[in-house]
Recover the amino acids of this structure.
């Protein structure tokens, strides 16, 4: 079992997972709402548009309609859409995989997996921030448009995503210390420092059981023997 609180080696990944979940919620809200920019006719988002003529008995009475064709013709707008979609995809991987790891990490440590999750989190945050910068620059350069609250919310989500990346990066650098507990061998032995599992021949040690002291707290594969008890 790893030292360091109730969750042991999973404490830092758990914190990063909670932070990333908050970032994902804010990002999806900004992603879905039609409040990225506004002009004289209404407000606009990445996927929907709210018209100022809503409620009037006219062709523009719908509260939210699809974007007009001239919006979807802009390459920068399509790029922002793609980047924000990639953010959701990249962040989904850690949010799905890490809850499983948090359970497994009570006794194991997978550095390669944490590196991969940190990379996914960073890529998602980078796509988020790049999309926000592109949208903000294009809207500010237009005399007809002004920014609304979805853009700052999306930017905040990207910054929180970077905090989650920092947490995962610290989890990569900080290898947990595992307490060595005395136990009789079961059918399997897991070395937490080498991420390997060894199968032993029997679970019933003989009467004259030998005791093995680990070197520097680590039991080497050569020491794995079904007739030994590790202390």
């Amino acid at each position: 079992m790893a030292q360091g609180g109730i969750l042991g080696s999973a404490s830092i990944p758990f914190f990063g997972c909670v932070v990333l979940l908050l970032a994902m919620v804010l990002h999806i809200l900004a992603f879905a709402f039609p409040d990225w920019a506004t002009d004289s006719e209404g407000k606009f988002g990445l996927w929907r548009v709210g018209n100022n003529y809503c409620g009037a008995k006219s062709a523009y009475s719908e509260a939210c309609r699809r974007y007009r064709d001239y919006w979807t013709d802009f390459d920068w707008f399509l790029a922002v859409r793609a980047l924000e979609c990639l953010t959701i995809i990249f962040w989904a991987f850690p949010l799905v995989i890490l809850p499983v790891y948090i359970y497994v990490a009570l006794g194991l440590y997978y550095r390669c997996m944490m590196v991969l999750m940190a990379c996914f989190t960073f890529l998602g945050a980078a796509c988020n921030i790049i999309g926000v910068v592109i949208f903000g620059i294009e809207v500010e350069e237009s005399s007809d448009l002004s920014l609304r609250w979805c853009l700052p919310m999306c930017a905040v989500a990207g910054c929180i995503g970077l905090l989650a990346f920092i947490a995962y990066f610290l989890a990569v650098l900080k290898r947990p210390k595992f307490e060595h507990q005395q136990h009789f061998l079961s059918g399997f032995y897991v070395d937490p420092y080498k991420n390997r599992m060894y199968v032993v021949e029997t679970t019933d040690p003989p009467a004259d059981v030998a005791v093995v002291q680990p070197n520097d707290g680590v039991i080497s594969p050569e020491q794995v023997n079904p007739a030994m008890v590790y202390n």
Summary: Residues 80 and 164 are 22 Å apart (CA to CA). Residues 1-6, 63-70, 182-186, 225-231 have pLDDT under 50 and may be disordered. Strands lie at 37-38, 42-44, 48-51, 64-66, 146-147, 183-184, 188-191, 196-199, 210-212, 228-230. The radius of gyration is 26 Å.
